[in-house]
Each structure stands twice: as structure tokens, then as C-alpha cells.
Amino acid sequence: MRTHPIATGLGLGLLFALFYFWSIKDVPFYTKGEPREATVVWEIVHTNEWILPLRNGHIIPSKPPLFHWLGALCALVAGEVSEFTVRFPSAALALLGVLLTYSAGTMLWGVEAGLIAGLILGTSFEWVRAATTARVDMTLTVCMVMAFLFFFFLYRRRRVSRAEALGFFVLLGLATLAKGPVGMLLPILTIVIFLCLQRDLKFLRRLHVVSGGVVCLLIAGAWYGLAWWKGGEAFFMKQIMKENVLRFLASDEVGAGHEHPFYFFVPNLFLGMVPWSFFFPALAMFLYRRRYTWARDGFLYFIVWTATVFLFYSASSSKRSVYILPLYPAVALLLGAWWQELKNDTAVFPRSLWRLLQGGGYVGVMTIGLFIIVVAAQLLGFDSLGVIRPFLHPKDQGTLPFFSDLVSTHPVAFGCWFAVVGPAALMLLRAIRNQRWGRVFAALFTFAFSTLLLVYGVFQPTVAVARTFRPFMARVVNHVKDTPLFFYGTFDSGAVFYAGRRIPFYALSERTAGGPYFLLMWEEEWEKLAATAEGGWQVVDISEGSGPKGNHHLVLVYIPEGTPPPPENPMNLDEVDTL
After folding, report:
1. Which CA distances in Å does 9 have to 105, 106, 439?
2. How high is the pLDDT of residue 371?
3. What is the mean pLDDT of residues 443-458?
4. Buried b vs exposed e over 543-558: b needs ≥16 C-beta within 10 Å?
């Protein structure tokens, strides 16, 4: 039966729309990054400052404002700044990225290739995490993906009007507004390398580079100029030097952050695309054997795209797994094209490739089996994750107890997962033996999608409830009302967001003279302060949430009128900027 591309695309879009939007509404902010961006959105909506909104009234944002503008527009339409409205741009753009990937694969290699590529991308863990998170990374990624794909189809068509060329540079300008110059640099670098390999640099003339560059400069440069004018040297040092130059060249010693070795992205790409990454060796062999027809088959551009993004960020001193998110659609497209050939037996593969294919499939079987064993052991009362606890980062060790509690408190959810994943594992094993690659894909997709539903429908909400300050800050607002409130020796963006107001830092020079006030501080800070506490200081409330790191509770302390003030304990603003 012939598959209709529009109907297939609508079904794909509906599936991931339900998945992405369903998981962003009710989960409160509990990490450092999401409320940090949410407070910028709050400032835009409540102060009408669209150029350089300052977090908590005085902290320069770390990133350009495109994501925050989109979040503010969503909030204005909805009538409130909430978790849903701040996360909405990431979810909507992630869905757009999946549909763009599907459309590109369909136009290049057919509906099946496009569908496989879209399903692979939409169920890759790193993509899902960015889709359901209020961070700027998905905005950057999809703006870059639009630029990557728009150029490629212009190149294949060979005819480029001035309007189309300018549209390409508009996309580069938007990508720059999403996270900085890297949004323009990586597509340009990829295109130049691709055209050099094609020995077709003269194609650049058709892009109207001069007028296009002016358009890009007007879009991105106008904001940078206005923000620099408003923020002065502090803006220049933070958003231009620290967030771009120092993050690429420098180390943690100068405050760049996230320093990792050159090979950091090798395991991160593998883990970010599990279970599809089990077939990377087979895909690599397939592409190597087809190396003389890369350009004709449409593979060359996506290989250059993947390699350029991967090597660029590998050369950078600062690394986070989400940085390489822009290469995920390219890898998904290569996997989609290859898997379609496997499924339809449209190519002859050597015995060595079949062995790699079966090896990847059996790794998938073992992975699913391991998941089943771990969950079953927890149900029977065994600490199945105890063996890996010593090898984990202390931050990750803190999440392990949640897993044990989840299995015992959500038996229905895990039972449904068993009912789906068990048959999928059996189907996968039989399909590998019979070389039925369509069924192999279906079994792996079933495992990936159902496991992601479990993670984002059960595990993440449980962790969020245990760590968020949302209910605590609701009580703080009720206690404090119009009384002055200050941070004392700490800062937390989530507390600011849920307070719905700016919370200044405590200092004797800034405290309201002669009147009562409240202080927010970590519990351990209060324990030190309590030893010298004057009469009348009172602990009003303590948060049940343990904070982004899972090891801090906030305390609300009341300082009545007429009592001696606590000693001055100002925060270091450079330290605050990382919180």
C-alpha cells in the first residue's frame, strides 16, 4: 500500500506533539538552568524590557534573547508566565525539527526514509530532553537546522532568487540571536567545506553574500549593538567574551566552565541516541562502502554537517552534551536513508556488514533485557543499582533512591512498561535472526518511546517534586506579603521565579531601616547564624524541596523590628551568575 506523505507527516506530528507538550505542563522547575531562563522571560513580561532584561533586576543574561522573546510572547498570549509558557518554545521548535527532518528525508529518499529519520530524531534522549526544557539550545538548534536544510535544497535546485538568498541569511541571523555567533558560524563553515569538496565555491555568488550579510548583520547586530549600549562593558565581557571566546578557548580557571577532554562527545553522542546508536558501526561501514557515490546519493552534505558540528565543539574547551544537538537531525537522516535500504532490500550488503547489523541488534536485546532485570529486581526488593553507585558522580548518586521508590509506588506504570517492552524484546530477537529490519526498527522504537514515557511521565515528576521550591515559595509569598525579603548568603533562580518578585541580596546598606524583614538562606547557613542569633529571630518555614543539587533546603527567617541585624553577608555576583 502506498504511503501518503502528508498523512504520514500529520500522524508523526500528532504523536510527538502529544508527547512533548504533555510532559511540560505540570512538572515544576527544579534545576538551575530552567528558572534562570524563566526569570528573564518574567522580566520581559513585567518590565517591558525587550532588549536587555536583567535577571532579578541586576544580572545580565548569559544568552541572546530569541528564546526569551518567544517565551514572553507565549506568556502574553496565555496571560501568565508559567512552566508551560516558558517551555512552549522548546517543545514547538523540537516538533518543527522532527517535521523538517521527516520532510527532508521524504524529498530525498522517500516517505519511509523520512518517517524513520523523524522517529529516530524524536525519540533520541538528548533531543527529548531539550524539547521539554526551558533552555535556549532547542531554539538555536532548529534555527540552524532550517538554515542547513534551506541551503541544501537551494543547492540541489541550483536556482536561487535574491529573496531566497536573503531568506537564508535571515535564518542565520535568527540562529545568532538564539545563542550567539556560533549560530551563524557553523552553517557557514559547513557550507564552505561542502562546496570545497564539491569544487563548486562559485555557487556562493548565487547566495548574494554581500546583501545577505547585511541582512544578517541588521538582524543580529542591531540587538547586539543596542544591548552593548545598554549594558556597557559588563555586557561585552559576559555575552561576547565569556560566553563565546573564553568558552571556546579558555578553561575553568578563568571561569569558562564545562571543561572536558577532546573525546567528550564520543560517548555523549552514543548515549544521546540510544538505542539507534547501537547501529553506528554498521552505518559507518555502509557509508564507507558507498564513499564514491556520497554526492549522488545525497549523503555528502549530511556527513559534512555532522563532522563539522562534532569537530568544532570537540575543539572547544567548554563542552556540554547538548552542544552537539544540531547534528542529531543529520545523523537521523543518514540512519533513515540507510534503514530504508535495509528494510526494502534495495542494496547488496557484504557479510561483514550483516555481522555488524546483527551485533547492533543483539546489543539492543541485551540493553532491553538489562532494563527488565533491573526493574524486576527492584520489584523483588533487591538494590539492583547498588553495583554502579560507586562509579557515579555524587550528583547522580542522589537520584538512585528515587528509582527504588518509584518502582514500589508506581506498580501500574511499570507493569504497563513490562507489558509493552517484554513482547518488544522477543520481537526484536526473532527479527534479528530472520533479518526482518522493519520489525527490528519497530521493536526498538517501541522500547525507546515507552521508556521515554516512563522517564518523563513518572521519574522526572517525582524528582521535580522532591527538589522544587514551588510549594515553599508559595508559602513564603503568603507569609511575607509586602514585607521586605532578602537573600542571605545564597541565591536561587527558582525561588525568584516562584516568588513572582525580585529578591535583592541582604546588605546593611540596602536593608529597610527600622522595619521588620525576612531572609532566605540555606539551612546550613542558618545553622551557623543561629549560634549568634539575637532574641526574636524566628525560623518561619523550611522548604521540603532539596534544591537543584538535591542537598540544600531553603529557610525563611523573620527578623522583627527593633532587633540587631545579622552580620552583612553579601553574595559574590560572579558566583550568583552561575546559580
Report:
1. 11, 10, 21
2. 81
3. 92
4. bebbbbebebbbbbbb
Distance, in Å, from the CA atom of 331 to the CA atom of 70, rounded to the nearest integer, reads: 28
Quick one: how far is CA 388 from the chain centroid?
A: 26
Residues 66 and 174 sit within 8 Å (Cβ to Cβ): yes
Residue 10 φ then ψ, to 5°: -65, -40
Which DSSP string do the residues of 194-250 spell out, in sequence order?
Answer: HHHHHT-GGGGGGGTHHHHHHHHIIIIIHHHHHHHHHHHHHHIIIIIIIIIIIHHH-
Per-residue pLDDT band at 1 (split at 50, 70, 90): very low
State yes or no: cis peptide before 275, omega within 30 of 0: yes
pTM: 0.93
Cell numbers for 204, please give them. 556562493
Name the one residue in this structure whose C-alpha cell is 527529548: 128
Query: Bridge partners of 557?
Result: 519, 539
Q: How many CA atoms, within 13 angstroms, populate the side-chain half-sphere of residue 572?
A: 4
Bridge partners (DSSP) of residue 559 are: 517
Q: What is the mean pLDDT of residues 372-401?
A: 65
Count Cβ atoms within 10 A of the Cβ of residue 352 and give its class: 0-12 exposed, 13-18 middle, 19 or more buried.
exposed
pLDDT at 184 over 90: yes
Nearest to 41 by CA among 139, 172, 176: 139
Tell me how far CA of residue 496 lies from CA of 17, 169, 474, 501, in angstroms.
Answer: 30, 37, 11, 6
- pLDDT tens across 61-76, in order? 989 999 999 999 999 9
Residue 509, classified by CB atoms within 10 Å of its CB into exposed (0-12), middle (13-18) or buried (19+), is exposed
CA distances from 152 to 155, 163, 315, 506 (A): 5, 16, 25, 55
Which ranges of 316-399 would DSSP assign to H, the alpha helix?
328-344, 351-379, 394-397
